[in-house]
Every structure is written in C-alpha cells, then in structure tokens.
Amino acid sequence: MDYLKKSVRDIDVKGKKVLLRCDFNVPQDADGAIADDKRIREALPTIRYLIDQGAAVIICSHLGRPGGERKMKFTLTPVASYLSELLGQHVMMAFDSVGNDAKRVCDAVKPGEVVMLENLRFNPGEEGNDPEFAFRLASLADVYVLDAFGSAHRAHASMVGVAKYIPAVCGLLIEKELGVMGKAMVAPEHPFVAIMGGSKVHDKLGLLNSFIGKCDAILVVGGMAYTFFKANGGEIGESIYDGKSLELVRGLYAEAEKKGTKIYLPVDTVIADKFSNDANYRVVPAGCIPAGFMGMDIGPKTVEEFARLIHEAKTVVWNGPAGVFEMPNFAHGTEGIARAVAESDAVSIIGGGDSAAAIEGLGLQDQVTHVSTGGGAAIQFLEGAELPGIAALLDK
Ligand code: AMP
Fold it and tell me: Whose CA is nearest to atom 20 of ligand 1?
C-alpha cells in the first residue's frame, strides 16, 4: 500500500474553503453529553493549522448509526458547542450536510472561521457512497482534507466520493498515522516484535499472516493463545478457543518456520474457576490447564520473558490485551506488556482499541511512538490492505 500521500502541509490553503472530514463519532452518555472528548481533542492540531493558514474550515463527520435518517439523538450540535469551547471561537452549525442550510452557511464562511455540517449519516448517500451526495458535499469547498483515520477503511461518500471532485489530502493526524505505521510496515528496524492478543483469532489471522516473514518474533497472548495451545495439543480446560481456526493456526506455524519468524506462546497462565473477577485463581504452566478452569491472563514468568524480548526490539507493534483486562485480577499481564512497550526504546505502535485503552489507562501514551486512532482501520493498514479513504488522496 502506498502511504506517501500529500498532506495539508503540501498545499496552499490560504483563502480556500476546506472541507475537513473528522471522526467525531464520540461516545455520549444517556443525556447526550460527550462522555469522551479524545477524538475532538485529537482533531485540534489540524483545525488550528487550517485556521492559522487562513483557510475557512468546514468540518464534517458522522455520529452513531442514524441509518440515513434525520434522528436528532445523533445531531452533531453538542460536538460543535464543545469544539467552540476548546477552540475559543464560535463554531457555526449547519442544520444539514448538503442541503440549503449547509450551502448558506458555507457560502458565508470566511477565512479563519469554522463551521460544522450536520451528521453525514442523516443522508443515505453517505454510507451508500452516492456520487450526487459526494458532488454536493464537494461543491461546498475548494479542497478536501481527510483526518478520520478510524473511518478510512470505509468507502463512504465523505471518505472517497468527494476526492473525485476536489483535490484531496490528509490532515496532520493521518499524516502521522501514515508516517509511523507506513514506515514500520515497509522498512521496519529489526528486531521487529509483534504482540498479538485479544480473543478473536479469526479476525486477526490476516494480521498474523502479514507479520510472518516481516517480524522476527510474534508474541501470542490473550484469549487467542488457547487456540494456539489447542492446535499444538495442549490442555486448555474451559478456556476460550476457536475450533474453526485450528488448521489455520497450524498453517501459520509452517509458514513462520519457512520465513524465519518465531512464534512465542505464554509459558505460564493465570487460571480461574469462573469468568469473574471474584473467581478463585492461581498460576499454572501454560498448556496444562485442568478441567473446570479457564485461562484468564498470562502469568508473571511470561510477562518477564516477553518484556525481555520487547526491550531488545527496535520495532514493536501491539494489538489486543494479554488477558481479561477489564477485571482487575486479570489485568496484570496486559499492564506488564504495556509497561514493557512503554519502557522499550523501540519504535512502538499501539494498534487501537483495547491496547490503546490499556496504555492510556496507565498514563503511558506519551512513552510510546504512536497510538493509532483507528481500531479496524489500523489493523487493515498494518495488514497491508488498501484503505479506500487513503487510496483516494493525492500521491506525494
Ligand atoms: P479482541 O476484540 O479480539 O481484541 O478481544 C478483546 C477482548 O479479549 C477483551 O474484552 C478481553 O477481555 C478479551 N480476552 C483477553 N484475554 C482473554 C481470555 N484469556 N479469555 C477470554 N477473553 C479474553
């Protein structure tokens, strides 16, 4: 995948109207208040850059799943108000995304001002990638800037359609995503260690496959490790495993052997007598889990051994927790991995979702090179798949 794409810094936006696609799909509480403002804060550098450069900024985003209908539960109005506070300047809200109000507001917007269009998904044309919807959206601006990495794997109108009509570049958030992750995937420094966890082996087989031959070591942790033990003939008790992936996992070993990638499994496991934080638990050697018990976390010896490998690495990619980290008694393995990644001098990339939450929960986000903003998109990017939103941007 070509990650050398033009960014907003490669073009002149002075006096231009810029349509900025953000990911403002923020979690809200029952009263509609913004429960986590991370995505809004992350968008600030690009918005401020555009304001400083003298552009008029027209922000668009989706929020939730209104299913192509105007459902006010999913209005972006609270996001516009919140953004106004963060920016210290008024963000004007348009009451639609491509209709008369959007046109009126965008016709009037001046350099240095910011407006926000209403939820793109109030119109079925967004998710349907309708060319007419994309054209009307593009007609509001002179230039398009994509800064919604988390949606870049979706071929929706505001991600790919608009780029057919006006010049399209990436924002500062995506520029960083592409810079760090692109280099890691195309020309990583070795040793390159991938840590793969979480529960859904099947979803991550593509990523595992793409790491074989590229990485020196793959450390398999979390629920997915039991499928690996099962495939190797280990005893896993009542631990989760994916019976449909056993053959594929055996195939991975064969490939890894051929291509010089070493697959490491945990050496010890924290087992519990039920799936609950107040279960009885103890540590046993991995692959020797008695009936009636399930593996909930990697054990302390594994943390120690894996930390050593992580410390020796020059590139580290981590995706997925090492245990049921939502339960404090089974969060130690994930915390140990998070600390090892943070301590290492390697270029370290956290592939979104739970691993990002674990790093941020420990306040270690500033000690890693990059926490990707897009879960599914990050995985697809690391797999080497072409993300439609990125492919649509101008090449450098
Ligand atoms: P995924 O969506 O595949 O990244 O998996 C994330 C989920 O895996 C988290 O909710 C963890 O609680 C879960 N998980 C991690 N380790 C285990 C385990 N040993 N048994 C069951 N679930 C696990």
Answer: 223
